[in-house]
Amino acid sequence: MNIHGKDIKIFSCNANRPFAEQIARALGLPLGDMQVKTFSDGEIALSINESVRGSDVFVVQSTCQPVNNNLMELLISIDGFKRASAGRITAVMPYFGYARQDRKAKARDPISAKLVADLLTTAGADRVLTMDLHAAQIQGFFNIPVDHLLGVPILANHYADKFKNTPHDEIVVVSPDLGSVTRARKFAERVDASLAIIDKRRPTANVSEVMNIIGDVRDKTCILVDDMVDTAGTLCNGANALVTKGGARQVFACATHGVLSGPALDRIEESVLKEVVFLDTIPQRHNTASGKLKELSVASVFAEAINRIYSDRSVSPLLG
């Protein structure tokens, strides 16, 4: 593996090309000439139309819906760059699919996140750049460097500005479950607010039941903080519980990844939530007139991370 390529080249698969274009624009570079197509039987065909020999190649692809197609596009493109003698290949994955399958929850479960890590390494990736893995320990599934960016600073800055004229003791940051407490605590420190936790159980996948609210939210403005929103069941149940059980005055929410599958949009629209903010790690293809959804861009953060990786500088300043 080369430590440093001769130049930077940014390429994009099909999951989120506008995001890759923003990254390239922020770096003052053209987007690399690559086409990823599909044969009539569903097989993926790749064409790299420029030389990458000795270059530092960054291939941008979120493994969001359709997850398996997008993952295969990424693996095949990495293999193509390796065989084209790229100096170093970085898989830029704003959203890392399969991250929720990071352990054996019951007997005979696969650990699919580890499998994906192995596939990326075997394909030829020299490092991975991603944001807000569902479980941070997934970094340990790789035997290559993983640069793990955080969405909390961007989201917290948005709400710090939004509520800059609101007394801090009237704002409560809420973790939707026990597993998200660390993220919510960091968020609360940034907006100088108190912390509350929703205690829940999950009887089956994509189904959650609120059990109790730990902390005082009565007559407060609550901000629910999570890493991702999939079917929005946890988010909307939590928001409703904050109002009906906890007596909250109003509830806002934010998450890094807006997966928004199944009934997610309808649930958000019908919930008590005033606003839901996502980062643009996943392209939002929904058509809705709802004023509840807001998107913030993190392309500039990824661009700066890529610039630092290429120039062998620390990425850690971007975490603060």
TrEMBL record:
Q: What cofactors are annotated for this protein?
A: Mg(2+)
Sequence positions that bind Mg(2+): 134, 177
UniProt keywords, alphabetically:
ATP-binding, Cytoplasm, Kinase, Magnesium, Metal-binding, Nucleotide biosynthesis, Nucleotide-binding, Transferase
Q: Where is the active site?
A: 200
Q: Where would you say this protein principally sits, based on its record? A: cytoplasm
| Residue ranges of every copy of the Ribose-phosphate pyrophosphokinase N-terminal domain listed in the record | 8-124
Binding residues for D-ribose 5-phosphate, per the UniProt record? 202, 226, 230-234
Per the UniProt entry, the Enzyme Commission number(s) are 2.7.6.1
One short Pfam name that applies is: Pribosyltran_N
Q: Which residues take part in binding ATP?
A: 41-43, 100-101
Cofactor binding, note field: Binds 2 Mg(2+) ions per subunit.
Q: What CDD domains has UniProt attached to this entry?
A: PRTases_typeI
Instruction: Give the catalytic activity.
Output: D-ribose 5-phosphate + ATP = 5-phospho-alpha-D-ribose 1-diphosphate + AMP + H(+)
SMART domains this protein is in?
Pribosyltran_N
InterPro entries assigned to the protein according to its UniProt record, in alphabetical order: PRib_PP_synth_CS (IPR000842), Pribosyltran_N (IPR029099), PRTase-like (IPR029057), PRTase_dom (IPR000836), Rib-P_diPkinase (IPR005946), Rib-P_diPkinase_bac (IPR037515)
Give the pathway annotation: Metabolic intermediate biosynthesis; 5-phospho-alpha-D-ribose 1-diphosphate biosynthesis; 5-phospho-alpha-D-ribose 1-diphosphate from D-ribose 5-phosphate (route I): step 1/1
Name its cellular compartments: Cytoplasm
Q: Give the record's subunit note.
A: Homohexamer.
Its function? Involved in the biosynthesis of the central metabolite phospho-alpha-D-ribosyl-1-pyrophosphate (PRPP) via the transfer of pyrophosphoryl group from ATP to 1-hydroxyl of ribose-5-phosphate (Rib-5-P).
Family listed: Belongs to the ribose-phosphate pyrophosphokinase family. Class I subfamily.
Protein name stated in the entry: Ribose-phosphate pyrophosphokinase
What is the organism lineage in this UniProt record?
A: Bacteria, Bacillati, Bacillota, Clostridia, Eubacteriales
